[in-house]
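User:
Care to share a sequence and C-alpha cells?

Assistant:
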Amino acid sequence: MARRKLHRADVAELLGINPDSLGRAKLPERDGTDVEGSHARPYWWSTTIDAWLAARPGKGWRAGRPGPHPKTAAAGPEETSDPAAPTPRRKIKPAR
C-alpha cells in the first residue's frame, strides 16, 4: 500500500467517527504540519495510523484497569461457558 498523507478529516473517516470527536482520541504524534496561509493542519502518514491502530487495545478496554473486567473474572466457568444459556435464578425460600 502506498503511503498517503492523512489530515484530521481523513483519520476520522478511517476510524468511522466524526472529526469533532478526534479531540477525545489519543492520536499518535503527528508526522508534520501543513501551513496554508494562517492555518496549520497536522498530518499523519497512513503507515503511522495503521501501526497505531494495530497497537491499540481492543474495544471495552479502559486505562487503569489491568487484566479482565472484575465481573468477568469473578464469574465461574459455568456462567461463562455458554453465553446463550439462561441466567440462573435465585432460589426463593418458602414463606413460613
Q: What stands out?
A: The beta strands are 5-7, 32-36, 39-45. The radius of gyration is 23 Å. The chain has a mean pLDDT of 78. DSSP finds four helices and three strands in the chain.
